[in-house]
Amino acid sequence: xxxxxxxxxxxxxxxxxxxxxxxxxxxxxxxxxxxxxxxxxxxxxxxxxxxxxxxxxxxxxxxxxxxxxxxxxxxxxxxxxxxxxxxxxxxxxxxxxxxxxxxxxxxxxxxxxxxxxxxxxxxxxxxxxxxxxxxxxxxxxxx
Length: 143
What we know:
The protein is of the alpha+beta class. 23% of the residues lie in helices and 36% in strands. The protein is globular, with a radius of gyration of 14 Å. The model has no long low-confidence stretch (mean pLDDT 95). This is NUDIX hydrolase.
């Protein structure tokens, strides 16, 4: 039996000291239901992380990410997360959410607090712990 970790590609989109995040659907069967997380997803067989990221972002936001820059990889026994970053070069209201419950630009205060408000959810929703850690690491790396 093969217990290799799955590979995913994630995007840190930044704009005016804020970070674009997706509120994941509140479905118990998925990872981090009802949590804020980074956009991205599973890589297909023989797909490079950059190609997979571009495909996932197009599917999830109808947005073409240009020149994503590799930030870091996070690996554990279950998942290898290939993390890229890029500026968000369009207004958030031009994005078309194709997956998830909500999207929004989160502030530095939201990131440090570990939760952010969603109008669609009608309240504060938590950040996925690994996603929060990735963003906090990214902030340290930038400085």
